[in-house]
Amino acid sequence: MNVKSLIRRNYKKQPEVDFPDYKSSIFRAPKNKKISFPSSDSEILGPIFNKNIIGELDNNLTLNFSKNKNSPLGHKIIVYGNVSDQFSNPIEGALIEIWQANSAGKYLHNNDKNIAPIDPNFAGCGRCLTTSSGYYEFLTIQPGPYPYPNRGIEWRPMHIHFSIFGKSFGQRLITQMYFEGDPLIKHCPMVNSIADEKAKKSLIGALDTSRSNTQNLLAYKFNIVLRGIQQTYFENRREGL
Amino acid sequence: MSTSKEILDETPFQTAGPFLHIGCMPNAIKIEKLYQNDLGKIPFKNKNESELITIEGSVFDGNGVALDDVMLETWQCDEKGEFKEESGFARFIPNNLTKKFILKTVKPGSFKGFDGKIHSPHISLSISSRGLNMTLNTRIYFEGDELKNDPLLSIINNCNVNCLIAKKISKHSYLFDIFLQGEEETIFLDI
Fold first, then answer.
1. Which domains does chain B possess?
2. What are the pLDDT digits (tens) for B21-60?
3. pLDDT tens-digit profile, chain A (241 residues)
4. Interface test with B, best of A37, A156, A233 (most B CBs within 10 A)
5. Residues from chain B contacting residue A27 (CB–CB below 8 Å)
6. CA–CA distance from A133 to each of A30, A53, B44 (Å)?
7. Given an 8 Å threshold on Cβ–Cβ distance, is A2 in contact with B136?
8. Which of A20, A116, A184, A228 is the most buried (most CB within 10 A)?
9. What is the ipTM of this complex?
C-alpha cells in the first residue's frame, strides 16, 4: 500500500494570518487553531488543468488587451522562473495566473478607488502552464506602486499577484512577487506579516541584467516552491500466510 | 531522486487582495475577450440538471457581515467516488446583491482512500480574499450521510463539528454558511 502525504506546512515561514497591522485582517482572520490531519486523496489527487484552456497571448500582457496593437504605457518587463516542489523536482503543467496594476498603479477593477488613470491597452491579467522543466514566463509592464487605506493611507510596493496550482489541491498557493530594490517593501504590512527574513526575501523577484541587456527590457526572476509529496510504502499483511 | 537532497521551504503566501477577479475570473467583472471562460465555471461537464445538487451559503466576517469580495474554490471526486484530474474543480464568488454563493455540482461519492479507509462524501473548499494573508481551507460534508467513521470527522473532538456539515434543505439542495470568526467560527484545516 502506497500512502502519500504532503510535507507538513511550516507556519514559521508563512505569514501570520491574524496580523492587525494589516487592518483588513482584523475581522477576517480566524482565531481558532487549524486542525491538522493526514493527507487524503482529496488533498493529493488533482486538479490538473488542460493545455487547451491557454490562449496564445495569455502570457503576454502587453498584447492580450491592446487595441489596434497599441502598447500599454510603462516599461516592458519579463517575469520568469521555475516552479518546483520542496524536493527540487520541477512541476510540469502547473497553472500560474497573475494579476497586477498598470504602470500608474491602477487596477482595471470597479473596487479600485485610487485616482490614477486606467490604461485602455492593459488589463493586467495573464496565465500560463509551466513547461516540462517547470519553467514559466510572462511579458508584461512594470506595475506602479499605489496608495491604499490601511492605518491611514499607505503605499503598496510594486507587485504582481500569483495564483498557482501544482498537481494537488494541497499544493495550492496564492502569493505576490515584489521587485528587487523597491524601497516600499520594508514598510509593507502584508510583507511584514511574514516574520522570517529569508522567507520574506524569497518573494522578491531578482533583477536579471544578463537577460535585460540583450532583450531591450528588464527581466526579473521569481522561482516558486510548492509543497512536496512523500510516498511511504506499507507492505500489506496477507491473511493466512 | 528526492531522498538525500535539501528540502526547500515552500514559497510563502500573501493575500489575494481585493482585485483577485482580474486574474482569476476576469469575465465575472466584465473583462471579456481575454479568456473564453472563467476557470472552474462548471465543475463537471455533460451533466443533466437532475444529476446536480445545489450548495448555497454566505461567508461572514467577525462583524456578521456577509462578504462579497471573497473567492471560493472547491475540489471533489465524482458521484462514484473517483477523482478525475481534469474535472471536479469549481471557482465562484458570492452574488454582490444577495451576498450568497451557489455551487451546482454532483454530489460526491464516498471513497476508499490510499490509506485503506472509507472517507465520507465531502468537497474540499478554499477561501481567498482581502484581509486573509493565507488561503483558508475547510470541507463540506452532507447531512444525512454516514459520517461517524470518516477519518477527519472522527479526529475532531469539537461539538462544533456541525459547522462542516451542509444542512439539507430539500432533496437536491443544501445550505453551508462559513463564519471566519465568532462563536460559530468554522473549523479550518491545516491540509
1. 37-179 (2.60.130.10)
2. 999 999 999 999 899 999 999 999 989 999 999 999 999 9
3. 778 899 999 999 999 999 999 999 999 999 999 999 999 999 999 999 999 999 999 999 999 999 988 999 999 999 999 999 999 999 999 999 999 999 999 999 999 999 999 999 999 999 999 999 999 999 999 999 999 999 999 999 999 999 999 999 999 999 999 999 999 999 999 999 999 999 999 999 999 988 876 668 999 999 999 999 998 776 655 544 4
4. A37
5. 61-63, 65, 131, 180-181
6. 38, 20, 30
7. no
8. A228
9. 0.95
Q: Range of A146's domain? A: 2-29+56-233
Specify the 3-state DSSP secondary structure of B86: coil
B-facing residues of A in 24-63 (CB < 8 A) are 24-32, 34-50, 53, 55, 58
Output the pLDDT for position A5. Answer: 92
The verdict on a CB contact (< 8 Å) between A17 and B134 is yes
Which one of B6, B7, B8 would you mutate to disrupt binding with A, by most A Cβ within 10 Å of its Cβ?
B8
Say if A46 falls within a structural domain. no
CATH number at residue A190: 2.60.130.10
Residue A64 corresponds to which cell in the numbers above?
A: 492580450
Cβ separation A42–B122 shorter than 8 A: yes
Partnered with residue A146 across adjacent β-strands are: A156
Residue A198, domain member (yes or no): yes
Give the whole-angstrom CA distance, residue B62 versus residue B126.
Answer: 18
Q: Cβ A108–B151 below 8 Å, yes or no? A: no
Name the β-bridge partners of B167: B175
How far is A43 from A21, CA to CA, in rounded Å?
Answer: 32
Q: Which residue is closest to A156 within chain B, CA to CA?
A: B17
B95: left (phi over 0), alpha (psi -120 to 50) or beta: beta
Question: Cell for A130?
Answer: 509551466
Q: Is A49 part of a structural domain of the chain?
A: no
Q: How many domains does chain A have?
A: 1
The answer to whether B170 contacts chain A (CB < 8 Å) is: no
pTM of this structure? 0.96
CB contact under 8 A, A87 and B129: no
A-interface mutation test, from B4, B10, B87, B159, most A Cβ less than 10 A away: B10
Cα–chain-centroid distance for residue B161? 16
Tell me the residue type at A44. Answer: I
